[in-house]
Amino acid sequence: LTGRNELAERYDLLSLYAKEIPNITMKELRDNAINFIIAGRDTTAILLTWTCYELSLNPKVQDQVLQEVLTVSSSEDEHALTYEKVQQLKLLEAVLLETLRLHPSVPSMIRFAVEDITCPQGEVIRKGDGVIIFNYGLSRMPNLWENPTQFNPYRFYNQEKGYEPSYYPYFNVSPRLCLGKHVALMEAKIAIAKILTKYKFTLKQGQQFDPVFSATLQLKNGMEMFFEPRKIST
Question: Member of which family (predicted)?
Fold first, then answer.
Protein backbone atom coordinates (compact mmCIF):
# COMPACT_ATOMS: atom_id res chain seq x y z
CA LEU A 1 0.00 0.00 0.00
CA THR A 2 2.85 2.40 0.78
CA GLY A 3 4.13 1.95 -2.75
CA ARG A 4 0.80 2.69 -4.41
CA ASN A 5 2.32 5.55 -6.44
CA GLU A 6 4.79 3.15 -8.03
CA LEU A 7 2.15 0.69 -9.22
CA ALA A 8 2.39 1.82 -12.83
CA GLU A 9 5.63 -0.13 -13.04
CA ARG A 10 4.20 -3.33 -11.56
CA TYR A 11 2.14 -6.04 -13.20
CA ASP A 12 1.36 -8.50 -10.39
CA LEU A 13 -2.17 -9.23 -9.20
CA LEU A 14 -1.83 -7.65 -5.76
CA SER A 15 -0.59 -4.42 -7.29
CA LEU A 16 -3.56 -4.48 -9.65
CA TYR A 17 -5.91 -4.87 -6.69
CA ALA A 18 -4.29 -1.95 -4.88
CA LYS A 19 -4.47 0.21 -7.99
CA GLU A 20 -8.06 -0.59 -8.98
CA ILE A 21 -9.52 -0.70 -5.44
CA PRO A 22 -8.31 2.48 -3.69
CA ASN A 23 -9.83 1.58 -0.30
CA ILE A 24 -8.51 -1.98 -0.12
CA THR A 25 -7.09 -2.83 3.30
CA MET A 26 -3.92 -4.67 4.24
CA LYS A 27 -6.05 -7.54 5.57
CA GLU A 28 -7.86 -7.85 2.23
CA LEU A 29 -4.55 -7.87 0.37
CA ARG A 30 -3.20 -10.50 2.76
CA ASP A 31 -6.29 -12.68 2.39
CA ASN A 32 -6.05 -12.48 -1.39
CA ALA A 33 -2.35 -13.36 -1.27
CA ILE A 34 -3.12 -16.45 0.82
CA ASN A 35 -5.90 -17.38 -1.59
CA PHE A 36 -3.52 -17.12 -4.56
CA ILE A 37 -1.00 -19.37 -2.82
CA ILE A 38 -3.50 -22.05 -1.78
CA ALA A 39 -5.65 -21.97 -4.90
CA GLY A 40 -2.91 -21.38 -7.45
CA ARG A 41 0.09 -23.28 -6.11
CA ASP A 42 -0.85 -26.09 -3.73
CA THR A 43 -3.72 -27.41 -5.85
CA THR A 44 -1.58 -27.67 -8.99
CA ALA A 45 1.28 -29.26 -7.05
CA ILE A 46 -1.11 -31.89 -5.69
CA LEU A 47 -2.49 -32.53 -9.19
CA LEU A 48 1.06 -33.09 -10.49
CA THR A 49 1.81 -35.51 -7.65
CA TRP A 50 -1.26 -37.65 -8.26
CA THR A 51 -0.76 -37.52 -12.04
CA CYS A 52 2.73 -38.98 -11.65
CA TYR A 53 1.20 -41.60 -9.35
CA GLU A 54 -1.42 -42.66 -11.91
CA LEU A 55 1.01 -42.64 -14.83
CA SER A 56 3.36 -44.84 -12.80
CA LEU A 57 0.57 -47.35 -12.23
CA ASN A 58 -0.44 -47.17 -15.89
CA PRO A 59 2.81 -47.35 -17.92
CA LYS A 60 0.94 -47.90 -21.19
CA VAL A 61 -0.86 -44.59 -20.74
CA GLN A 62 2.43 -42.97 -19.73
CA ASP A 63 3.98 -44.11 -23.03
CA GLN A 64 0.96 -42.90 -25.01
CA VAL A 65 1.12 -39.47 -23.41
CA LEU A 66 4.85 -39.28 -24.10
CA GLN A 67 4.25 -40.12 -27.75
CA GLU A 68 1.60 -37.42 -27.97
CA VAL A 69 3.97 -34.86 -26.45
CA LEU A 70 6.79 -35.79 -28.84
CA THR A 71 4.46 -35.69 -31.84
CA VAL A 72 2.90 -32.35 -30.97
CA SER A 73 6.07 -30.61 -29.81
CA SER A 74 8.37 -31.87 -32.56
CA SER A 75 10.58 -28.94 -33.56
CA GLU A 76 14.19 -27.91 -33.88
CA ASP A 77 13.98 -26.16 -30.53
CA GLU A 78 14.31 -29.25 -28.33
CA HIS A 79 10.61 -30.05 -28.43
CA ALA A 80 9.58 -26.50 -27.54
CA LEU A 81 5.99 -26.16 -26.35
CA THR A 82 4.12 -23.10 -27.51
CA TYR A 83 0.68 -22.11 -26.25
CA GLU A 84 -0.90 -23.46 -29.44
CA LYS A 85 0.89 -26.79 -29.09
CA VAL A 86 -0.14 -27.17 -25.46
CA GLN A 87 -3.78 -26.93 -26.57
CA GLN A 88 -3.22 -29.95 -28.82
CA LEU A 89 -2.24 -32.24 -25.93
CA LYS A 90 -5.71 -33.76 -25.67
CA LEU A 91 -4.71 -37.09 -24.13
CA LEU A 92 -2.56 -35.38 -21.51
CA GLU A 93 -5.49 -33.09 -20.66
CA ALA A 94 -7.73 -36.15 -20.34
CA VAL A 95 -5.18 -37.73 -17.98
CA LEU A 96 -5.20 -34.58 -15.83
CA LEU A 97 -9.01 -34.45 -15.74
CA GLU A 98 -9.23 -38.13 -14.80
CA THR A 99 -6.58 -37.67 -12.11
CA LEU A 100 -8.58 -34.78 -10.66
CA ARG A 101 -11.69 -36.92 -10.70
CA LEU A 102 -10.07 -39.67 -8.64
CA HIS A 103 -7.84 -37.43 -6.53
CA PRO A 104 -9.46 -33.98 -6.34
CA SER A 105 -6.96 -31.39 -5.09
CA VAL A 106 -9.78 -29.95 -2.98
CA PRO A 107 -11.55 -33.05 -1.56
CA SER A 108 -14.49 -31.11 -0.12
CA MET A 109 -15.88 -27.60 -0.08
CA ILE A 110 -18.68 -25.71 1.61
CA ARG A 111 -21.21 -23.42 -0.01
CA PHE A 112 -23.99 -21.37 1.58
CA ALA A 113 -27.53 -21.26 0.24
CA VAL A 114 -28.64 -17.84 -0.98
CA GLU A 115 -32.31 -18.85 -0.80
CA ASP A 116 -34.52 -21.66 0.52
CA ILE A 117 -34.21 -24.79 -1.61
CA THR A 118 -36.16 -28.05 -1.65
CA CYS A 119 -34.04 -30.92 -2.97
CA PRO A 120 -35.47 -33.60 -5.32
CA GLN A 121 -35.80 -36.09 -2.44
CA GLY A 122 -37.57 -33.59 -0.20
CA GLU A 123 -34.76 -32.26 1.98
CA VAL A 124 -35.08 -28.55 2.69
CA ILE A 125 -32.03 -26.29 2.73
CA ARG A 126 -32.70 -22.92 4.32
CA LYS A 127 -31.17 -19.66 3.20
CA GLY A 128 -27.82 -19.27 4.92
CA ASP A 129 -27.34 -23.01 5.55
CA GLY A 130 -23.91 -24.39 4.78
CA VAL A 131 -23.76 -27.36 2.41
CA ILE A 132 -20.64 -29.52 2.27
CA ILE A 133 -19.86 -31.00 -1.14
CA PHE A 134 -17.66 -34.09 -0.79
CA ASN A 135 -15.81 -34.07 -4.12
CA TYR A 136 -13.80 -37.17 -3.24
CA GLY A 137 -17.00 -39.15 -2.73
CA LEU A 138 -18.70 -37.83 -5.86
CA SER A 139 -15.94 -39.28 -8.01
CA ARG A 140 -16.62 -42.75 -6.62
CA MET A 141 -20.40 -42.88 -7.11
CA PRO A 142 -21.36 -45.61 -9.63
CA ASN A 143 -24.58 -43.82 -10.52
CA LEU A 144 -22.49 -40.91 -11.82
CA TRP A 145 -19.44 -42.63 -13.29
CA GLU A 146 -18.98 -45.98 -15.03
CA ASN A 147 -16.38 -48.08 -13.18
CA PRO A 148 -15.76 -45.11 -10.86
CA THR A 149 -12.61 -46.38 -9.13
CA GLN A 150 -10.88 -47.27 -12.41
CA PHE A 151 -8.35 -44.83 -13.87
CA ASN A 152 -9.64 -44.31 -17.40
CA PRO A 153 -8.58 -41.04 -19.05
CA TYR A 154 -10.41 -42.02 -22.22
CA ARG A 155 -13.69 -41.08 -20.58
CA PHE A 156 -12.53 -37.48 -21.17
CA TYR A 157 -10.66 -38.00 -24.45
CA ASN A 158 -12.28 -36.64 -27.62
CA GLN A 159 -15.75 -37.00 -26.15
CA GLU A 160 -18.23 -35.03 -28.26
CA LYS A 161 -20.84 -35.05 -25.51
CA GLY A 162 -18.39 -34.12 -22.78
CA TYR A 163 -19.28 -34.64 -19.13
CA GLU A 164 -22.04 -33.30 -16.91
CA PRO A 165 -20.52 -30.26 -15.10
CA SER A 166 -22.44 -30.98 -11.89
CA TYR A 167 -20.75 -34.41 -11.73
CA TYR A 168 -17.34 -32.75 -11.98
CA PRO A 169 -17.23 -29.79 -9.56
CA TYR A 170 -13.47 -29.86 -9.03
CA PHE A 171 -13.12 -26.41 -10.62
CA ASN A 172 -16.55 -25.43 -9.34
CA VAL A 173 -19.41 -24.79 -11.77
CA SER A 174 -21.54 -22.07 -13.35
CA PRO A 175 -20.87 -18.50 -12.10
CA ARG A 176 -18.44 -19.86 -9.50
CA LEU A 177 -16.24 -21.57 -12.09
CA CYS A 178 -12.58 -21.25 -11.09
CA LEU A 179 -11.01 -18.29 -12.89
CA GLY A 180 -7.69 -20.12 -12.96
CA LYS A 181 -8.95 -23.40 -14.45
CA HIS A 182 -7.33 -23.01 -17.86
CA VAL A 183 -4.11 -21.58 -16.42
CA ALA A 184 -3.86 -24.48 -13.95
CA LEU A 185 -4.39 -27.09 -16.68
CA MET A 186 -1.86 -25.35 -18.93
CA GLU A 187 0.73 -25.25 -16.13
CA ALA A 188 0.16 -28.92 -15.35
CA LYS A 189 0.35 -29.91 -19.03
CA ILE A 190 3.67 -28.15 -19.51
CA ALA A 191 5.14 -29.58 -16.29
CA ILE A 192 4.12 -33.18 -17.04
CA ALA A 193 5.20 -32.86 -20.68
CA LYS A 194 8.64 -31.61 -19.66
CA ILE A 195 9.05 -34.32 -17.02
CA LEU A 196 7.93 -37.09 -19.38
CA THR A 197 10.37 -36.14 -22.11
CA LYS A 198 13.26 -36.30 -19.65
CA TYR A 199 12.30 -39.11 -17.27
CA LYS A 200 10.43 -42.37 -16.98
CA PHE A 201 8.99 -42.59 -13.49
CA THR A 202 7.89 -45.49 -11.33
CA LEU A 203 6.65 -45.79 -7.77
CA LYS A 204 8.85 -47.17 -5.04
CA GLN A 205 7.34 -50.47 -3.96
CA GLY A 206 5.98 -51.15 -0.49
CA GLN A 207 4.43 -47.76 0.13
CA GLN A 208 1.02 -47.18 1.64
CA PHE A 209 -0.84 -44.18 0.32
CA ASP A 210 -3.17 -42.85 3.00
CA PRO A 211 -4.95 -39.66 1.93
CA VAL A 212 -5.39 -36.89 4.46
CA PHE A 213 -8.52 -34.80 3.95
CA SER A 214 -7.91 -31.16 4.73
CA ALA A 215 -8.25 -28.01 2.63
CA THR A 216 -6.32 -29.99 0.02
CA LEU A 217 -5.82 -33.72 -0.57
CA GLN A 218 -2.56 -34.49 1.21
CA LEU A 219 -0.67 -37.75 1.73
CA LYS A 220 0.04 -38.90 5.28
CA ASN A 221 3.48 -40.31 4.49
CA GLY A 222 4.28 -38.60 1.21
CA MET A 223 5.13 -40.43 -2.01
CA GLU A 224 8.49 -41.77 -3.17
CA MET A 225 9.22 -42.31 -6.86
CA PHE A 226 12.13 -43.33 -9.05
CA PHE A 227 12.99 -41.09 -12.01
CA GLU A 228 15.00 -42.78 -14.76
CA PRO A 229 16.54 -40.49 -17.42
CA ARG A 230 15.15 -41.13 -20.89
CA LYS A 231 17.14 -41.34 -24.08
CA ILE A 232 14.99 -39.87 -26.84
CA SER A 233 16.39 -39.61 -30.32
CA THR A 234 15.62 -36.35 -32.09
Answer: Belongs to the cytochrome P450 family.
Please answer whether residues 197 and 88 qualify as being in contact, where contact means their C-beta atoms are separated by less than 8 angstroms.
no
159 occurs within a structural domain: yes
Beta-strand relationship, 130-134 and 108-112? antiparallel
Say which residues have a Cβ less than 8 Å from residue 210's Cβ, sequence separation at least 6.
219, 220, 221
Integer Cα distance of 174 and 171 in angstroms: 10
Q: Determine, yes or no, domain membership for 128.
A: no
Within a domain: 60:
yes
pTM: 0.80
**pLDDT digits 0-9 by tens, 112-160:** 999 999 988 899 999 999 998 898 998 899 998 999 999 999 998 876 6
Is residue 118 one of the residues assigned to a domain? no
For 104, 129, 165, 176, the CA distances from 111, given in Å and listed in that order, are 17, 8, 17, 10
pLDDT tens digits along 195-213: 999 999 899 998 988 888 8
CATH number of the domain where residue 92 is located: 1.10.630.10
Closest C-alpha among 95, 16, 14 to residue 48: 95
Based on the number of CB atoms within 10 Å of its own CB, is 4 exposed (0-12), middle (13-18) or buried (19 or more)?
A: exposed
Q: How many domains does the chain have?
A: 1
178 labelled as ligand-binding?
A: yes
Cβ contacts of residue 61 below 8 Å, gap of 6+?
Answer: 54, 55, 95, 151, 153
